[in-house]
Design brief:
alpha+beta; 49% helix; 5 helices; 180 residues; 5-stranded antiparallel sheet; disordered N terminus; 5 strands
């Protein structure tokens, strides 16, 4: 059925051209039509993969110890997979007497640690807050247990030095959704 619709669209676009003597324009139209057709095919394949992959993704996460649940979105009728993540609040620590050079080195090591957590797939997003409050930033850990998230957060050089303290909480989010 999809092929028939695509073919009708292609023929419609080709016959809509009134002046076939201009090969350049016809070539541009064919290229545009091909791009549209390719886009439709990719979108359809993505939708099929998404519908198939919700169950497979849930099974994979569950087998690795992650907590999940799913629900059907009332507007779109899509199945949404929710996963438990762990959000680590990085709070101002009690040991803040490092000189400027020591603080700069700790910051460098802190950023390396967060980068490593991201590269290894343990953390999905990290960042500082924009004010100068007691809560300095967050990291969202994509690991199966609170114990693992807590251990990873506490292995941060800033936390080990006492410049930051960590408070970790379970947090639920839809799998695969992006920030806007």
């Amino acid at each position: 059925m999809r092929k028939i619709i695509v073919m009708m669209f292609v023929f419609g676009m080709l016959f809509a051209c009134k002046d076939n003597s201009k090969g350049h324009e016809e070539s541009n139209i064919e290229t545009t039509v091909e791009a549209v057709v390719d886009s439709i095919v990719v979108q359809e394949e993505t939708l099929v993969e998404k519908k198939i992959s919700v169950r497979a993704l849930k099974d994979s996460l569950t087998s690795k110890g992650f907590q999940t649940f799913e629900y059907v979105d009332s507007k779109t009728k899509d199945t949404v997979l929710m996963q438990q993540y762990f959000i680590a609040f990085l709070k101002k620590g009690t040991v803040r007497n490092q000189n400027e050079e020591e603080a700069a080195l700790l910051q460098e090591e802190h950023l390396k640690h967060l980068g490593k957590m991201y590269e290894l797939g343990y953390a999905d997003i990290s960042g500082p807050f924009g004010d100068d409050g007691d809560i300095r930033g967050i990291t969202i850990y994509n690991v199966p247990t609170l114990g693992i998230a807590d251990s990873l957060a506490k292995s941060d050089p800033m936390v080990k030095a006492g410049r930051l303290e960590v408070e970790v909480h379970p947090w639920w989010a839809a799998k695969g959704f992006q920030l806007r």
